[in-house]
Amino acid sequence: MINTIYRLCAPRRFETAFDNIDVNVGVIVRPTHLSICNADQRYYQGTRDIKVLKEKLPMALIHEAIGQVVYDNSGGFKPGERVVMIPNIPTESDEYIAENYLRSSRFCGSSADGFMQEYVCIEPERLVRLPEDIDLDVAAFTELVSVSTHAIGRFKSIAHNRREHIGVWGDGNLAFITSLLLKKMVPHAEIYIFGINREKLSDFSFADGTYLTTEIPSDLWLDHAFECVGGNGSPVAIEQIIGVIRPEGTISILGVSEYPVAVNTRMILEKGLRLFGTSRSGKADFRKTVELYKEYPEIPVYLSRLVGNTVEINRFSDIKEAFETDIKKAFGKTILHWNI
């Protein structure tokens, strides 16, 4: 079976490639809804290190995607079933290290072709069924939601049990998702959001309080915190968190920065703080996320606020247009309706 793959071959330039798929190996899935991530944009715009770009390109982008099953030789999935595709590809298992942290694991759109393909041949273990009534535009970025699910799960296993006040730094997509899930997964905690954009903060209507980072009350204290800022804002966010967190609190770092970030080790030591990082997610996190969709139908409703642009991809030229449109967005996710 001949498959068409749409690869980024250089910044802002895509090419078409062809490959042969063995229908007797894995599950054949037709991607239907794709979501552009900031990582995809770093490749597209060429803001990654030039050495990294030379090593990884040409490569198909996109690791946030859902699709419909076309054929499954094993019979585990039926044609037409809606599934979310897990981009993490483990090649081994470890008793102590999760699949998303194993250095041997590959990842679609980073160390392997992503989901910008006509068809995807994928192992059945890398698929999770979606609810029939799910909003497909929301389901498209389930991978991002699963990262927050994973981070909160790790937090619950690491942090002490005084969880009355939790802060989330950031007013973007990741902060929105993380704080929304915290309200469900840590139900007795009060969740406070800290950002730089008053208009964006107004979208966090489910939170117990929102603050501009320039107007944090002097008498505010938190038990734990999540950093969802990344980039150049990470140093300031982490410094503010260290300042307002109570001794022996836990700080979850989710924001991605291209450069090393200096942290106030003196106060980390004085307060006995715990810092841990979270990257990507595994199958258990995808399953938990879909369970949350079912258990709390309001979660997909809130997440629909993050659907910014929807772009119909009917021809090759639409792909570049979608990425250019995504660059200009102020907030939310750009969803591709993959009809090509």
The top-level CATH class of the largest domain is Alpha Beta
CATH architecture call of the largest domain: Alpha-Beta Complex
Major β-sheet annotation: 7 strands, mixed
Gyration radius (Cα, Å) is 20 Å
Percent strand equals: 25-35%
Number of domains: 2
Spans of at least 5 consecutive residues with low confidence: none
Alpha-beta classification: alpha/beta
Annotation, overall tally of beta strands:
18
For this structure, the CATH topology of the largest domain is Quinone Oxidoreductase, Chain A, domain 1
Kindly report the name of the CATH homologous superfamily of the largest domain: Medium-chain alcohol dehydrogenases, catalytic domain
Query: N-to-C terminal Cα separation, in Å?
Result: 17 Å
Q: Quick one: overall form?
A: globular
Order of secondary-structure elements: EEEHHEEEEEEEHHEHEHEEHEHEHHEHE
Total of DSSP H or I helical runs spanning 4+ residues: 11
Share of residues in helices: 25-40%
Mean pLDDT rating: 96
Describe the 3D structure.
- By secondary structure, the protein is α/β, with parallel strands linked by helices.
- It has two domains: 2-143 and 281-338, Alpha-Beta Complex (Quinone Oxidoreductase, Chain A, domain 1), CATH 3.90.180.10; 146-277, Rossmann fold, CATH 3.40.50.
- It is built from eleven helices and 18 strands.
- The protein has helices spanning 38-45, 50-56, 136-139, 142-158, 173-185, 198-201, 234-244, 265-271, 283-295, 298-303, 317-327; strands spanning 2-10, 13-20, 27-35, 59-60, 64-72, 82-85, 88-89, 106-107, 120-122, 127-129, 165-169, 190-195, 209-212, 222-227, 245-253, 274-277, 307-313, 333-338.
- Helix 4 (142-158) crosses helix 9.
